[in-house]
Specification:
Elements lengths: L1 H5 L1 E4 L7 E8 L2 E8 L7 H7 L1 E2 L3 E7 L8 E3 L5 E5 L4 E5 L12 E5 L8 E4 L2 E6 L2 E8 L4 E2 L4 E4 L11 E5 L5 E5 L15 E5 L7 E5 L7 E3 L6 E5 L12 E6 L10 E2 L3 E2 L9 H9 L5 E3 L5 E6 L13 E5 L12 E7 L5 E8 L13 E6 L5 E5 L4 E7 L25 H13 L3 H4 L8 H4 L2 H7 L14 H17 L13
Helix pairs in contact: 4-8, 7-8
Length: 505
């Protein structure tokens, strides 16, 4: 691969603080960058003080203990279903029936899945897209419980490399649509189903490729006005701060959207499009350009067209898009939800809808929006995989629920961690061997890991790190050792392990 000949990447392990530092070595270049991997904390006060939305709406913190919250679906009863790929589970948040602005409860619906991401409800089924296939399970909307066993209906999908998430949705034509991202930044895929949108029948039969050349179309939805399918797409990396744009594409059956040969509006890619063969030049010329550009590296993910009659006229039929935010840009950008509005000529106008996830200094990050779901009453739910939170944005000028300023928030005491001091010492050796201290000693302090992970959960993190952080291929013993070491720093950071008050397993 040409791009791999240009750069050698040294990825430094990052966890709880949420930033990975990578040094890129190329002729005459030494460029540091940071990657957010999750771990911010949020609360009602932070949301009230930091997040802002357009007039006519107000924002509340609906739930704040949903680590790695990704895709969303609303039940007929008004409960919210959330996927958590890194935990291998799907969780249900109870509807806010007591009207305090918060979910009335939370419980795991199903676990033991392989990185579940996309999901939707159809009739009395809950469909779930795992990284390697799709399954469904009977679902009782009345009490929010599963009513049968989980059945895998599509299997054998590739999930190696980057962009392993799968997103699914039921189309108006009765087909289930499925997106699958690329394995890489830019390359020629061996598996023709990667970097595509596919579709299949509701029973899993007749899987077929619908559109190609889509590097990573995590979100898609159908416009209620024109019926067209629109999908977000993340542009490639390492071509500078401002190119190529991320994209909104109008998806056509059989359409080719350029990747990896072209970026944006048919601009030849320097690795695979420049000086290409006549066949490739023709593919570029025939490719379908985006209908709207997002700024480079903004990482548009979820897109949802607003349909509820409760929405103000200016927003009904508009699309909301979650800009997850840049990880490889000199100055951070994105980190907000925008609205897209179509005028009478079909031109698309973009406006900020929910912002404040990025601090005024454009350095501190409070959250990264992912997916968007709307309920029948017009409430808009937005997931945040960085803060592990769900926000609710509602029509009207009501005020968010806020804790009384004279009553400090009381946190429950942590359960004692059963740290194995021998394993922790072996983990410290790994920590030093892989150069983690170069990042975490100064720039990124590891903290509050016990709030986010169990020992096993922290060990499991190493199997599914957030791209572009690689999977180091740690053995079970190595993962366990590193988890014990990192947790030991929480309870005795400055003290020797023997004096840190640790318990043995």
């Amino acid at each position: 691969m040409k791009s791999l000949l240009k750069y050698t990447l040294i990825f430094l392990l990052a966890l709880g603080a949420g930033i990975t530092t990578v040094i890129i070595f190329a002729p005459g270049i030494s460029v540091p960058w940071k990657q957010l991997t999750g771990g911010a904390r949020t609360d009602i006060e932070t949301v009230d003080n930091q997040l802002h939305t357009v007039p006519g709406y107000h924002v509340q913190l609906f739930a704040d203990k949903v680590p790695n919250a990704r895709w969303l679906a609303v039940t007929r009863h008004g409960d919210l279903i959330v996927s958590q790929p890194k935990r291998g589970q799907v969780t249900l948040l109870k509807a806010d029936e007591n009207r305090d602005g918060r979910a009335d409860g939370q419980r795991v619906l199903i676990d033991g899945l392989r990185r579940p991401h996309g999901l939707f409800l159809y009739e009395d089924w809950l469909y779930i897209a795992e990284s390697d296939g799709v399954g469904r399970v009977p679902f009782d909307h009345s009490d929010g419980r599963l009513a049968g066993s989980y059945q895998k209906i599509v299997s054998g999908l590739g999930d190696e490399g980057n962009h392993w998430t799968k997103t699914i949705a039921m189309g108006p034509d009765g087909w289930v649509y499925l997106s699958s991202g690329s394995t890489c930044n830019v390359c020629i895929e061996k598996d023709p189903r990667r970097a595509t949108i596919m579709r299949f029948r509701p029973d899993g039969s007749d899987l077929q490729i619908y559109a190609t050349g889509l590097r990573n179309s995590v979100g898609f939805d159908w416009s209620p006005k024109d019926g067209n399918l629109y999908a977000t797409d993340n542009g490639r990396d390492w071509l500078g701060d401002d190119f190529p744009p991320c994209e909104l594409n109008r998806i056509e059956k059989g359409g080719f959207y350029g990747w990896p040969y072209a970026n944006g509006n048919r601009v030849p890619d320097p690795d695979f499009g420049v000086d290409a063969s006549a066949d490739i030049r023709q593919k570029i010329a025939d490719s379908i350009p985006p209908v709207h550009d997002f700024p480079a590296h903004n990482a548009p993910l979820g897109i949802t067209f607003l349909r509820s009659p409760a929405q103000p006229d200016a927003y009904r039929d508009a699309a909301l898009v979650a800009l997850h935010g840049s990880w490889n840009r000199t100055t951070k950008d994105g980190y907000k939800v925008v609205s897209l509005h179509w005028d009478g000529r079909g031109n698309i106008h973009q406006k900020d809808f929910l912002w404040g996830f990025l601090g005024a200094d454009r350095k501190e990050v409070y959250g990264r929006p992912v997916a968007i779901a709307e309920d029948a009453s017009g409430n808009i739910y937005i997931s945040d995989d960085y803060a592990g939170a769900i926000y609710r944005v509602s029509p009207g000028e009501g005020e968010s629920t806020t804790a009384a300023p004279d009553k400090p928030r009381i946190q429950a005491p942590h359960k004692p961690l059963a740290i194995d001091s021998g394993a922790a010492r072996r983990g410290e050796e790994l920590y030093q061997r892989y150069g983690c201290a170069r990042c975490h000693a100064e720039q990124v302090k590891l903290r509050d890991l016990a709030d986010k992970y169990s020992l096993q959960g922290l060990a499991d993190y190493f199997d599914t790190p957030t791209p572009p952080m690689p999977n180091y291929g740690f053995s079970a013993a190595q993962k366990r050792a590193l988890a014990h070491y990192l947790m030991s720093r929480e309870v005795g950071a400055a003290a020797p392990l023997k004096d840190a008050g640790l318990q043995r397993n």
